[in-house]
C-alpha cells in the first residue's frame, strides 16, 4: 500500500471565536489517502492554518520540506519510519511545537489506515487491550463566582461523572478568590467525587507565575483534596515544576504543551512530574505517545492524555489508554461546540462513569464528512 495524498482541512465554528481557553472552537482534520482506497483520519489541536501550511508547503531544501509531499509514496504501515522521515524533513524549521502537532495528525491517520486495512482496532495494533473501558473525568472551565463554580461541578456529577476538572477561567482572579472557587466546588460535589484543578499558567491577581507564588495557592487549596494540580507554571519552567513536586504532596500534572520523547524526558527525569498529559494530536501522535508511555512506565509515572477537540482525539486517547499499564483516566471535554460534538456521527456515551474503547477497525469511529464540509474554513 502507498500514500497518495495528505489533505489538511481547517474547520471553524460559525460566528465569534472567543479568547477563552476553549480550543474546540476551531480545528483541523487530516485525511491521508492510499492507492488501495483506504482513507485514514487524524486531527490536530493547534493553530489550524499554521498546521495546514506545514503540511501543504513545497520543498525548500532537504531538511526543510512540507510534510505532505515528504511522505507521498510511503507505505502507511511503516509508522516509525515515516515519523522519522517527517521529523528529519522538517528539522530546519521544526523539532518542536506546531510541526510536531502537524506530524501528530498525520501519524494518527496512518494508524487509522493500518487498523482499517487489517480490520482491527488501533488498541490491538498498539500492543493489546489492558482495559476495554476507561473512567472519564468531565473537563470544563472554572467559572468566576463560587456559586457558578458549585453549579458547574454539580452539573457534571449529576450527568454521571465520578471526577470533574475545573480549569483556567476563574483561576485568573486574586488568590483568595481562587480559594473560594475551589472551596465551593468541593462543597458542592462532596467527598465522593475526584476534583482535578487546572490552575493554568496565568497569574492569580497580582501574583506572578512563579513556582514560589503557585505553591502559596496550592498550599491553600490542598485542604479541599485536589486530585491533581495542572500546569501550575510555564511549560518550559522545568525547574519550577521540580520545585513544586519536591514541595507538596499534591500530585503535580503537566505536559499538554510538550512535544516529542525528548521533551517528555525532561518532564520525567528533571521535573519528576506525578502525571504526564501528552495530547495525542500534539505530542507526536500515537507513535510518539507509545514511546512516551514506555519511558514513563520505567519511571513509575502516570500518563493521562490531554484531550480537548473533536471525537477523533477522544478515540485516539481511548486506544492509547486501553494499552497502557500506567494510564486509567480519559479527559472528556463537556463543552458543546460543533467541532467537539459534530465531527463524528456518534458521541462517546458515558456509562456508569466510564467510556467504552471503540473496537471497530482503526479509530473505530464514523466520521461525518458532511459536518466537516459544513464547518470547513480554508481562508480566514
Ligand atoms: Mg490543561
From TrEMBL:
It comes from Enterocloster bolteae 90A9. GO terms for molecular function: hydro-lyase activity; magnesium ion binding. Residues 146-251 form the Mandelate racemase/muconate lactonizing enzyme C-terminal domain. Keywords: Magnesium, Metal-binding. SMART domains: MR_MLE (SM00922). Its cofactor is Mg(2+). The keyword RNA-binding does not apply. InterPro entries: Enolase-like_C_sf, Enolase-like_N, Enolase_C-like, Mandel_Rmase/mucon_lact_enz_CS, Mandelate_racemase_C, Mandelate_racemase_N_dom, RHMD-like. The keyword Magnesium applies. CDD domains: MR_like. This is Mandelate racemase/muconate lactonizing enzyme C-terminal domain-containing protein. One of its GO terms (biological process) is carbohydrate catabolic process.
